[in-house]
Amino acid sequence: MSDYTVKTLPDVELTDHLRSILDRLDASTADIETCVTLPREVYTSEAWFEFEKRAVWDPEWVCLGHIGQIPEVGDYFSITINDDPLLVLRDETGEVRVMTAVCQHRGHILGEHAGNTKIFTCPHHGWSYDLSGTLIGAPQMQAHASLEELRQTSCLPTLRSDIWNGFVFINMDGKAPPLNSRLERLTEEIANHHLGDMGATPTCDFSGYPWNWKSMQENAVEPHHTWFVHKGPHDFAPSRLATFVEWDEDDDGAVYHPTGFLYRDGGFTAGFQSLFPIIETLTDNERQRVMFASIMPNLFIGTVPDGCLYYMILPDGANSLTLRVGYLFPHSTLALDNFDVTFKAVVDGIVIYNDQDTEANTAVHKGLRSRFANRGRYAPLEGTLPQINRWLVKRYKAYAAQLDAGSS
Ligand code: FES
Ligand SMILES: [Fe+2]
After folding, report:
1. Which residue has the least CA distance to atom 4 on ligand 1?
2. 86: pLDDT confidence band, cut at 50, 70 and 90?
3. Is the pTM of this model over 0.90?
4. Residue nearest to atom 1 of ligand 1 (CA)
């Protein structure tokens, strides 16, 4: 991988508001028997979200998508992480590269939602860049600067990226330990799915969801609500068949749990069955469960017997997010004659659950904005949530300590 650019956000000031939140976090990292939820401001305060950008989003590996979306040289897609529009592409050498999508002339955004190109040309004044981000054209600039001169300051910065199971991640501050080293147990758990070899369907964005990014992960990875919110459609995967794993500070890249099915080859579809061919390498046990995993902060996956559903959570501040949804399937499945028809049935099935979760997440966030929001206790089936809290609080405290050390 070629050189990358590191550009971190300027630090925030540890105000009384931020300190008052930091002072109350410990109660949310206790054992599940006594643990309570995080303070409501962690979900609703825009100042806290600014703190989180520095404490969590800049230092961590943040997911952008899957290599199945960009199999050919010149394939690319766009994604915005907080305030940074990015291009994820397959460059001339066949490598995956992540660059800013911000034109280095006056800031117009480059690229469409997705596509294939050899050159990104800015619609504003025609500056153009190749797949390595090198500036290769700047019309009507010669009287002020040559192309060679402009190239010194105005090529597109490449960001530090890494790949896990085919998912592309970036690390803004350049200091995160290798991604794979903190996902060892989950990697082993889902190895038989071979997600890195799968192909991807086009992703779909749902914008303006009115809740916090962490609530999205919490709802997705706790099996307690399924008995209530999804009563009926989720009964083939009852919450009583959910199991949990011990938290491991040294392998803390993901919070995950499997939920068993009442029968083999179940699926989140109208008939509660997998509709595509079952992945041949799965064991009997793997054919009778879904593995839900939050790869913190922003990737959520659900591996099922015929493929994988994934969400990327893209915050629009503390109180809103865009959800990007994608599916992975073996290439042999994607090549089926009836793929499109069957896939529509798969999506129709997921929409049932998503609509129910949307209603629940919206209501929860409305409640969290109230002064009467409580720090409630957890049920045994919420075993993943104190784990999310520990993941977060560790990073919140590390950044706060860094700020304190810098100001002393
Ligand atoms: S902003 Fe892109 S060419 Fe001017
Ligand atoms: Fe749900």
Report:
1. 125
2. very high
3. yes
4. 106
